[in-house]
Design brief:
alpha/beta; 16% strand
Length: 337
């Protein structure tokens, strides 16, 4: 993976509308994302009728149950097929996260080639085993998790047949939106150090600063929720980027990729021509006649820097000038004996 993989998380921000889902595809492609990701689930397999909502979901709608909320956000199998074709037309890759085993089987039949394990499934043993047995690249979100839970999940995946090099661990915080003081971005590096795996970051903060910082710290995958309009009703819109913001985030991450470079400290091609302008070389502080023995008091360091380097001053002191030279003269090797 040479560049940062940017996943535009449409999630359920289509609000159950295939037309809106298609608009999200077009917006993600226009923003320059590599992948657009939806969510695949069968509500009956995901939650009980009495399952409570998260606090941020209750703020949006306190009347409907979690089951009722999710039921209105399901995409049909036919919707998935149509969205895959729509993504091909827009030159962006279709992807989705399964939230139950039946949905996982359905996505497997689509041959997408890789998987996203959401934070809520990190402790779901049968789910992890099924993903592991497929032995395809897996991005594993870690919201709400301890390091022990992360290591336990990795262990299950490996024992089920997933090769270690196919795992990317995604640092994540499962609060929408995530307060800045809870991001703990350095934990992403701790995960990398402890597991020896590639790292990514799934972001739920407001704004674009944190995913950009994550890319600078070495995240190989960035996932970010986006919506067509943050004022739309629905559980995730308020913690999502709008299309223009998504485009800015993608552009900034691509700039960061270039800025990181190869890690070798050397003059860059664009700055080499500035060396003579910005650095100094040894000049004469006063008029000197031929045969004068050079002392430090005769010398001054001035721009331009295309003469003898000031770092060679000690080698110059004690030598004689071979001709009359004026103050401010840029000393050259041919002036000396």
């Amino acid at each position: 993976m040479d560049k940062v993989l940017i996943i535009a998380e449409a999630g359920v921000n289509h609000n159950g509308s295939l037309d809106r889902a298609k608009q999200l595809v077009a917006a993600a492609a226009e923003a320059g994302a590599d992948i657009i990701k939806f969510q695949t689930f069968i509500s009956e397999n995901l939650v009980t009728a009495s399952a409570p909502k998260a606090a941020y979901q209750k703020k949006e709608d306190a009347t409907a149950s979690q089951y009722e909320m999710l039921k209105a956000l399901e995409l049909t199998k036919a919707d998935h097929i149509e969205l895959i074709e729509h993504c091909k037309r827009h030159n962006i890759f279709f992807f989705s996260t399964a939230f139950d085993l039946e949905s996982l089987d359905f996505l497997a039949s689509l041959n997408l080639g890789f998987w996203k394990i959401p934070s809520g499934e990190l402790t779901n043993l049968p789910y992890l085993r099924k993903i592991g047995a497929l032995n395809q690249e897996a991005y594993v979100s870690t919201g709400m998790a301890t390091m022990k839970e992360i290591n336990d999940a990795i262990s299950v995946l490996l024992k089920s047949g997933l090769e270690k090099e196919k795992i990317i661990i995604m640092h994540c915080n499962t609060e929408y939106p995530t307060p800045m003081h809870d991001v703990n971005l350095k934990a992403m590096l701790s995960i990398q150090k402890e597991t020896g795996l590639r790292i990514g970051y799934s972001d739920h903060t407001l704004g674009i600063e944190v995913p950009i910082a994550a890319a600078a710290l070495g995240a190989r995958v960035i996932e970010k929720h986006f919506t067509l309009d943050r004022t739309l009703p629905g559980p995730d819109h308020k913690a999502s980027l709008e299309p223009g913001e998504l485009k800015m985030m993608v552009s900034a991450i691509r700039n960061i990729e270039q800025a990181l470079g190869d890690g070798i400290k050397k003059p860059s091609p664009s700055e080499i021509e500035n060396k003579a302008v910005a650095r100094k070389s040894i000049h004469l502080k006063k008029n000197l006649s031929a045969g004068t023995l050079l002392l430090e008091e005769h010398l001054i360091m001035k721009r331009p820097g295309d003469g003898i380097s000031p770092m060679k001053m000690d080698e110059i002191i004690g030598r004689k000038v071979n001709k009359d030279l004026a103050a401010d003269h840029k000393l050259r090797e041919e002036d000396l004996v």
